[in-house]
Amino acid sequence: MEQEPMFKAAALQWDVVRGDLDHNLERAEGLVQEAAENGVQLGILPEMWATSFMGDAGKGIQPLVDRAEERLRALSGDFAMVLVGSNYETSADGRVYNRASLYEDGRKLGEYRKAHLFTPLGEDRWFTPGDDLSVFPTRVGRLGIAICYDLRFPEFIRLFHRKGAQILALCSQWPEARATHFRRLGQVRAIENQFWVLASNRCGMEPSLVNDQEVLYPGNSMLVDPTGQVLKEGNGEPGLVEGEIDLKANALLRRAIPVEKDRREDLYRKLWEEYWNEIDRNGGARINESAGTAPSS
The CATH number of 6-262 is which of 3.10.20.30, 3.60.110.10, 3.10.420.10, 2.40.50.320? Predict the structure, then answer.
């Protein structure tokens, strides 16, 4: 597969209206077409772009989602683009996932199921977590796909680097209350892993499924280079956040700072095994009985 070292990429953002497939599909179609007219070759859509999060109503939404996914596949062919976005997936055994699909030139290249569910907003009530990770070769480079909350887990994102990703594509519904985290984490993940981060984050407002309070989404989609520079960032308005990706920057940085070569995998494995019994499976450190105190946070 011939890879293009420099190309235009865009994050698509709009107010994703809960349950309104026609509205969301119209916005997606318009922005994909606009991106294609601007010469964009890689486009990332928001998390749950076709319907947003539906709560209990999501159990019957699959036929609408299938129509949206088929249209996105067709758009990738009509405009010769690589497109990524997440939606509902209901498996044959009835489990529901938050699944991102990857399309290139009218073909589905792969998919990814969200591994980390955001329990404060009840995602674990409606979804099953995914348990896999892949990096997909595309004509615009080796693409890793993550969804929203995944960004907070460095151990997970590190595996994209280990699998040779050049770009991390992130589909999000990340609220304004933690917008600074979104930006900083995008920068840190790019620096740690020496790859590009292209993240789409919706804008607009939507009631929480947990307490019905309005949640504001900042529309701060971003393009971050491998040094952590935010080259482009959304301003809260619907539209495109677009810029150029130069994959030569990855190679130059990885030669200058050879993180992969200098990793101590043997040490990490030893430390993990040595301290495994001291790790609280619920997420905290066990009290060190010999010292009689717990580590400070």
Answer: 3.60.110.10
